[in-house]
Design goal:
Blueprint lengths: L1 E5 L3 H12 L4 E5 L13 E5 L8 H6 L4 E6 L4 H10 L3 E4 L4 H32 L16 E5 L2 H14 L4 E5 L5 H7 L5 E5 L6 H10 L5 E5 L9 E5 L14 H12 L5 H8 L3 H11 L6
Parallel strand pairs: 1-2, 1-3, 3-4, 4-5, 6-9, 6-10, 7-8, 8-9
């Protein structure tokens, strides 16, 4: 990893660079804020807030995608609070052990990596679940606990994913067929949403035990068959004529209609027509034939 040390105490900067090199970091030094505004990309910026008479905020803005750790002599709004509000990640107070600095760097290194992975996974899941078109629903009117009845599990998955995103709450998903279901529920202490799929696939006695364990929890149950569960609101998701199971055998026209309806918001017309092996003109004609309106 490349590290830029912005520190006007040259001996301290050199000492830090030498010690960080022992941990595998490649370090460069800037003794003033102006030199730190170079165009080079750095993974970590170690920024001293003791640059007398110098404005270090442009350094924070310039390297906002990097891990920025403030090197401070004392704690105040000028040395910690305001710089962190401006985009710095953390601070370490002088004097400090190099091991403590490395620990902070590694912590934020992991955080940034998981942040990127989380964003990527969310985009992938969003793209996938958007292909399962849901009936219009006012999330404000949804009441928990909730039972979702849907012939295909993916529609329930789609609803829970977008609902949890709307209320800004994480959720734990677990199958009722999971061997560790009861153990997981007994040890579950989180206040986040609990989503249990395939609830209708277990025996009646198993359902009763699950219901007892989730009695005081914010829970959503998903089933393929209609059930009546006391205390649970019910939502039935009816798949329209454009939805089909993977086991269905369709005519060519039915398949093309499904693909156009399900993926026209995912791919541009050029890509969609290419994947279907037809021209854009033919795609337009088929929309007209199937009475499929394209969103603008």
């Amino acid at each position: 990893m490349k590290v830029l040390i912005v520190e006007n105490e040259i001996y301290l900067a050199q000492s830090m660079a030498s010690k960080l090199a022992d941990f595998g970091y490649s370090c460069e030094i800037a003794t003033n804020a102006k030199d730190a505004l170079r165009d080079d990309k750095f993974d970590v910026i170690l920024l001293s807030t003791g640059l007398i008479g110098q404005d270090f905020y442009p350094v924070i803005k310039k390297h906002q995608s990097s891990i920025i750790i403030l090197l401070i002599s004392y704690i105040s709004s000028d040395t910690v609070s305001n710089p962190i509000k401006a985009g710095a990640d953390d601070y370490i107070q002088k004097p400090f052990m190099i091991e403590e600095l490395v620990r902070k760097i590694k912590l934020f290194e992991s955080y940034k990596r998981y942040e990127i992975l989380n964003t990527t996974y969310e985009q992938v899941i969003t793209s996938y679940l958007k292909s399962y078109k849901l009936p219009k629903c006012d999330f404000k009117k949804v009441k928990i606990p909730l039972l979702i009845v849907a012939k295909r599990k993916q529609y329930a998955d789609s609803f829970v994913f977008f609902y949890a995103k709307w209320i800004n709450l994480v959720y734990k998903q677990i199958s009722a067929l999971d061997e560790e279901l009861i153990t997981s529920l007994k040890s579950y202490r989180s206040h986040s949403l609990l989503y249990i799929t395939e609830f209708d696939k277990i025996e009646e006695s198993g359902r009763e035990e699950v219901l007892k364990l989730i009695k005081d929890k914010s829970a959503i149950l998903a089933t393929e068959t209609d059930l009546d569960i006391s205390g649970f609101d019910k939502m039935v998701i009816n798949i329209d004529s454009n939805g089909f199971d993977g086991s269905d055998i369709l005519t060519i026209d039915e398949y093309v209609k499904h693909i156009i309806f399900g993926y026209q918001d995912t791919f541009p017309d050029t890509e969609l027509s290419k994947r279907l092996g037809i021209s854009r003109k033919s795609l337009w004609e088929k929309r007209k034939k199937y009475d499929i309106a394209k969103k603008k």
